[in-house]
Amino acid sequence: MAFNGTVEVGNVMDALYAGTDFSSLNWAEQKWVAWYVWWGNPIIATGMLSFLMHESISGVLFLGLSSTPFQQWDCTKQVLWAHLTVELPAIWLFYPMSEFVGMKTYQVPFPSLSTMSWQIFFFMFFEDLFHWAAHRALHTPILYKYIHKIHHKYSAPFGLAAEYAHPAEVMILGMGTLGGSLFLCLFTEVHFISFFIWVIIKLFQAIDAHSGYDFPWSLQHILPFWSGAEHHDFHHMAFTNNYSTSFRWWDRIFGTDDKYLVYRERVQAAKAKALSKEDFLKAEQALMDEVLAEGLKAENEVEERSSRKVKVQ
């Protein structure tokens, strides 16, 4: 159903939910209906729901896991700029795109938990592969120098740094977040609630990966193929390796975790050799400093290649 303007409140129920058995709806579905009826326009309702969810999680949790006030303010300016120039337009354009490919938005009831579960996993799988490939591309000389370099400003990430990126990078990587759901619509029925839950999961994953904390409850301690903060921290230190976002398997399959694996072996060897916790922490810090020095060297080499290419052109 296409909507070009706000539906009058008295006609919303008939326009959106004619023939719906409201007595069969669960609590969440009833609140979903109430939200769309209150706004009276599915375009506005979907956009506001997405915007408020994203900004709430970004604002509270990203800032809560950030380090110094200066870092917070420096990052906040760039993040807000990306939100205004890329994410806000994308949020409001998502409804027309989703309607075009047949995604359900305001409709109830929701799909079953089993359907939502496998679809969310597909979104994660799709985004992780897309992110790995796009991230590798962003480390090529030209794209790195003019786009991705901003995200690598901090070798030790913190919460807000998850979205500290050039607007072009936000747009490129965002295609992976949106693309899986839109692509799946071509083959089966997808509801916006599945995509909505996936985006929440994705935000928490980004927070976890860039938090700088190896939380006891982080999934890498339960699922060995989950990336987590420690896996992504190495990428920011070493500049190379560990390009994936959620899962470790693409880096393992394509051999882009070779330096990381050597580093982990050296850390484990240092741990076995250390006579005390203090000795181990000193040895670990020395290894991290060595990786960081090599990463800065690799970054400089990429930028030099970019400069040479520009001169040749």
UniProtKB/TrEMBL annotation:
<dbReference type="InterPro" id="IPR050307">
    <property type="entry name" value="Sterol_Desaturase_Related"/>
</dbReference>
<keyword id="KW-0812">Transmembrane</keyword>
<keyword id="KW-1133">Transmembrane helix</keyword>
<dbReference type="GO" id="GO:0005506">
    <property type="term" value="F:iron ion binding"/>
</dbReference>
<dbReference type="GO" id="GO:0016020">
    <property type="term" value="C:membrane"/>
</dbReference>
<feature type="transmembrane region" description="Helical">
    <location>
        <begin position="181"/>
        <end position="201"/>
    </location>
</feature>
<feature type="domain" description="Fatty acid hydroxylase">
    <location>
        <begin position="121"/>
        <end position="256"/>
    </location>
</feature>
<dbReference type="InterPro" id="IPR006694">
    <property type="entry name" value="Fatty_acid_hydroxylase"/>
</dbReference>
<protein>
    <submittedName>
        <fullName>C4-methyl sterol oxidase</fullName>
    </submittedName>
</protein>
<keyword id="KW-0472">Membrane</keyword>
<dbReference type="GO" id="GO:0016491">
    <property type="term" value="F:oxidoreductase activity"/>
</dbReference>
<feature type="transmembrane region" description="Helical">
    <location>
        <begin position="115"/>
        <end position="134"/>
    </location>
</feature>
<feature type="transmembrane region" description="Helical">
    <location>
        <begin position="43"/>
        <end position="66"/>
    </location>
</feature>
<dbReference type="GO" id="GO:0008610">
    <property type="term" value="P:lipid biosynthetic process"/>
</dbReference>
<feature type="transmembrane region" description="Helical">
    <location>
        <begin position="78"/>
        <end position="95"/>
    </location>
</feature>
<dbReference type="Pfam" id="PF04116">
    <property type="entry name" value="FA_hydroxylase"/>
</dbReference>
